[in-house]
Amino acid sequence: MSGTTAERRTMERRQIAWAASAMIFGGAPHLFAVVPWVALLVLAVALWRIVAAARGWALPSLWLRAPVTVLAFLGVALSYRGVSGVDAGSALLLVMAGMKLLEMRDERDRVVVVLIGYFLLFAVLLRAQAIWSFAWLAGAALGITAALAQTVRRERLLSVPGAAALAGRLLVQSLPLAVLLFVLFPRIPGPFWAMPNTRATGVTGLDDQIQPGDISELSLSDAVAFRVRFEGAVPPADQLYWRGPVLERFDGRRWSALPDVARDGPPTADSAAGMAYEYQLVLEPQGQRWLLALETPLAWSAPRAALGRGRQLLSADPISERLSYRARSVTGGGMLAPESPEMLAFDLRLPPGRNPRARALAARLRQDSASDRDYVGRALAMLAQGGFHYSLTPPPLGQHAVDELLFVTREGFCEHYASAFAVLARAGGVPARVVVGYQGGERNPFGDYWIVRQANAHAWAEVWLDGGWRRVDPTAVVAPGRIELGIDETLAASPVTAERLWRANALVNRMVLSWDAVNAGWDRWVLAFGPEMQADLLLALGFEVPRTAQLAALAVAGTIAAMLLMGFALRHGRRVPRDPCAILYARLCGRLAPVVRARAAAETATHYAEAIASARPDLAAEVRALTRQYLELRYGGRYDPAGGRALAARIRRFRPAAAPAHR
Asked: What is the count of structural domains for the chain?
């Protein structure tokens, strides 16, 4: 075997290893999310293909690859009960990419495998979109681009640092175009790469039904429910009521929601005692349909959302991905909206035979009251002056939960007091219901926004007074500090948890808030960059808000302009000093051109040497030796001045004569 052929075989084997590594770079994040046998199969195939290339093993035949591919497809379908969805789709994509490695033979196959690596890398965005995941994505993109540069080379491969440097330059040059397309490409509501994620179901812990103890279980959770940024004035702490499910059905212990009933439009807010606030809310995935909103929502930008029964903002679909929307709400007032006599009668129902002592207490209070408003005030005064305590760990309650709270334990959490007050209101002839959501929040000074955590979960009551529903929070009279100072003050007396211990340290808490501000900025400007933010940005840049077709045309025109500018800059930019090796090789080609033929523009040094050797066998040995010395000098690493002088001297001595004329 000739030296040239052996070198070519060695280079091809290295190119196969580069192509296989590109698939590993793109598929690695998926390997931790698929069933174990898929990860093991793909890794085994990739490693076998690299070893097979190094040792010259033959590839499996079609008769072996076809049944293995079919079995792998059936394995994915059985493991995931189908092939649709993010998890099943990722597993199937990995398996098919592994099967492609088993038939990778030539340059075309290597390029296809590298492109599959890019596709696998992009598919990671369907699974992980946090800012930390993009560190891996950037590194993997660098590795795959380096693999692409190596797999298409015809001459000696670059060193690993050289390939990485080339890939880095290519990625940096592509960044302006990527930013331009990100800003101008027509946006759709929600994250551009969002896919339904069924694993998000139930993340927040709020439900459309509660019983004593449900919300107190969330009080120690530090998980973020949503973040909110106010555009202008910020409500006082005692007005930060984030409205969730409205519960109207009561069975004596458990409150639950009625079926959703959408309204024709937003309610008319009683703004006599309220103030309007505008804000942008980024809701974490929670697997439910409700959207959190401040008190009485009047306007909102959430797609396919409508106001349901009891001012509850509802989405048409469960929230399985992070969602950003703007809203305008009124706090401190009420909702002046007609309510049917049937619904008001329903909101007076109490199960027969349950909580008799609470009913008797309500009868006495009602007898001494001049009006519904007076009765509500007396019930609140009883809770404020009755020696009740606010506790995260109240004693368990039995069948007559309200009676036991009011007359035995006198200790409960927000859901206990909201339920007890609503029962007293109904027993006294005042329609009432329970609302669950969140109250308060923690301001992040590094980003000027509020973080509302699961620990802020709260329950309060609403009563029908003066032709509208009015908020009444019994917790505010039992434990005013919970509303005025926040949940953290209440948690100070509760059992210590790891999360609270970390956040109690001032330095650690500042670090946590700083990192949260970085993530919030990422969520706001990248993941939640939708039509509204795009329109605002274009307006800030001096553009009128264009339609989708105009945006598409603007994106195409901007892309063409950016590519022309980049091409001009690369062509007419600062000239790099010419490679001394290239100068020496040009001299060699100049010696050969008049006696044999000139080198073609796209002809590699190796191909040109072989062409000269074929045409002039008498020059073959010397031309091959000079070409090999040139390639080693130019692509062997750093330039060797001594080697350059030796090559220059040898080329000076090389004086090829013209071929003798044939008679």
From this structure: 3
